[in-house]
Amino acid sequence: MLRRGHRFAPFDSRGRFTIAAILITFTAFSAISVFLSIRTTQHSQHRAAVLQVAARQRAIAERYVNEILFVSSGGSADPSATGSYLTESADALLDGGEAPALPGDDDESGLPAQHGKVIRAQLTQELRLAHDLTATGQAILKHRPAGSVPLTAGEDIAALDPVVRLRVLAALTANTSLNASRAIASANDRGISHLITIQVLLGVAGLLTSLLLAFALIAATRRQTAHFRSLVTASTDLVLVFGRGGCRYASRAVIEMVDRPEQELLGDGLSEFVHPEDLGLLRTTCEHGEPAEIVFRMRNRHGEWRQLDAHVTDLRGNRQLRGVVLNARDVTERMRLEEELTRQAFHDGLTNLANRALFRDRLDQALARSTRTHEPLAVLLLDLDGFKQVNDTLGHDAGDKLLRAVAERFAGAVRPSDTLARLGGDEFAVLLDPASETEAEEVARRLNQAAGEPLVLAERELSVGASIGIVAHPGGPADGDDLIRHADIAMYAAKDAGRGHHQVFRYDMALEFGELMALEGELRAAVENGELCLHYQPEIEVESRRVVGVEALLRWQSDTRGNVPPSDFIPIAEATGLILPLGDFVLREACTQAAAWLSEGLIDESFVMWVNISAKQLAAGRVGTAVDQALSATGLAPNFLGLEVTETAIVPDGSAGERAREELQMLHDRGVHIAIDDFGTGFSSLGQLRHFPIDMIKVDRSFVQGVDHDAKDAAITANIVTLAHALGLVAIAEGIESDGQLASIRDLGCDLAQGFLFARPRPADEVRLVLAEGSCSPDDERDPAAA
Q1: Pairing with 324, which of 249, 302, 475, 483 sits 20 to 30 Å away (CA)?
Q2: Span 303-322, mean pLDDT?
Q3: What gap in Å lies between CA 425 and CA 405, rounded to an integer?
């Protein structure tokens, strides 16, 4: 047991920083003294070289005069070289550089530039005198009057004899050089004197600084314990020190957390506040000094258990401490956050149900258990019926509320031990473990009943159903992916059976619904591999039989399946979102073909290339962008393009319908034609039609097929044509397959016609022949070549 011990004060002073400061002070002052000595010595060496060269100038000047006189008397000498030595040495003395070596006298010397004002003035005067001396010597050698040489140093010797003049200039040069030498020597002496003074001052300052630091050492040793104790006391870290007597020190943060005096925490008093499950770990750690990190719980003043993350330091070998130190931090909030992040990683944020990752983990665990015990289990996949309509008409907020409400109902329809998950969108999954096929079907019925109960959203009473696929596993080894795939196929079968149904997976289902899934994969590959193309079906003016436009229709010639009907692959494209890239492809290809026919002179300004636009494309809000890109890429004018949209694509209320109307209005204003396709099969009203930019109404083929023998179809067709003309629109009948149908729609006043009677959808090359003729009669289709 931990025993109550004496109060422990672990922080004392060593004064190491003050001692280090004293050593640094001595080092710094010594380094400065040595640096100044070296620098002064170097300056003295430089000045000695300067003195030598300056003193040499007198000898060079005298030699120059003697050589001039010697050459004038017929002797042989080189006074020009000597004069060059004189001037070059003067330049080096003034501005620094290499003073040339004098033959037979000394070596070449490197000189620093002089900075003293007086010295520079004297050296400048010497340089001028040297120039005047050499110029006068040259004049004498060339037998020119010495008085013609301009003097630059301010000498007043113009009336003197040339030889006397030359000697005077040499003497002046030597005297000026001598004066400069004396000034430089005086500066050197002053530098040495300054060095001695500085050395004395540095010594005194170093001594005084060291004495002050020594006194500071005493004060530092007194402050250090109080300083570190203040730091630990003010720290939010929880510091505990344990020794043989139990807890020997508790920081203020610990005292404030448990709200007890320090004396009650020392010894064994701390164990009262440690969680009983963690007390053994804490005692073992304090006895052995390991592990290096532990997490334990302590109760705070409010009775709440707080999680403490402690770093353990074993200082029992330290003769001043001889204990185990715990530096702990309250990580309760962090651990709660980690738990929340973990929950979010495995739970759906909208419904708080398990997500796909957690569902797969639970399924794998259930299959592992089933492999051992051979107990049966079942997997259910659910897809809400009508959820898309709720999202499109009421908005995504209403859709989210619907998902939350349905999730709560589903949770009440399953057992607490079962796993209910939302896989994404409106798709849910249930793992029943254990469960037989009969029990799974019973759960499916409860889920359908829960989903079908009326629900009020956006002041509307709604009810949705669920299509449920069930796969029952009898027990033993199985693959989780296979179970989910089979449940998915069963769910497709339930959808095919109608709203609110469930289906148990049977292997014969895979032949039908697995084929649809395979078709989706092949369609995606067909888009990438270029297996898609366009065929074109002409639109004929009824009275003149003139071709006034064509409708672009997508065709798929599969490498493996052959010709795949649009009725097989267009619904899959709609369901999977592939309709968006397919729609862009059709627009681009159709505009390219129209531009080609226009450049060949086959069509005129009245011709329209019609392209079908799906509800998905309008809902995505990308039709305008796709049209702009297609027209820009092909250079086609907007009036050559027409868009066919169905009634169901434009009639939704709310933001979806408004967005579709605005986008179509923008395109219509630019000259793009708009047509309502399959008119009469949707739910549009006259009020809605007035708000949409429409140029043409297409009478659906379901009415046209009976127009020549069914009075109801004839009446509906007549009313649609009359409505179109009343609104100032063009009426076109599609699906014309017989002469009787053609005669009937002509009598009803229909403007345009389209159908197999005139031409089936054909490749562009075959349609080019029709356009070249300018018209299309019913006999054309009966022509084998035309077919």
Answers
A1: 302
A2: 82
A3: 14
- Single out the residue in 150, 185, 207 at which a domain terminates: 207
| Total domains present in the chain | 4
Alpha carbons 37 and 203: distance in angstroms, whole number: 14
- Calculate the alpha carbon distances from 701 to 121, 570, 615 in Å: 116, 19, 20
- The reported pLDDT for the residue numbered 21 is 67
Is 733 within the bounds of a domain? yes
Note whether 64 and 104 are same-domain residues.
yes
Strand partners, 461: 456
Most confident of 16-25, 280-289, 405-414: 405-414
Q: How far apart are CA 399 and CA 387, in angstroms?
A: 7
Work out the angle at residue 332's Cα, subtended by the Cα atoms of residues 328 and 334, and round it to the nearest 5 degrees: 100
Clarify whether residues 170 and 30 are in a common domain: yes
Cα–Cα distances (Å) from 463 to 405, 430, 451, 727, 783, in that order, read 11, 21, 7, 38, 55
Return the bridge partners of 440, or none: none
Higher pLDDT, 163 or 13: 163
Residue 513 burial class via C-beta count within 10 angstroms: exposed 0-12, middle 13-18, buried 19 and up? buried
pLDDT at 733: 93
- Please state whether the peptide bond connecting residue 434 to the residue before it is cis, i.e. omega within 30 degrees of 0: yes
Per-residue confidence at 783, pLDDT binned at 50, 70, 90?
A: very low
pTM for the model: 0.44
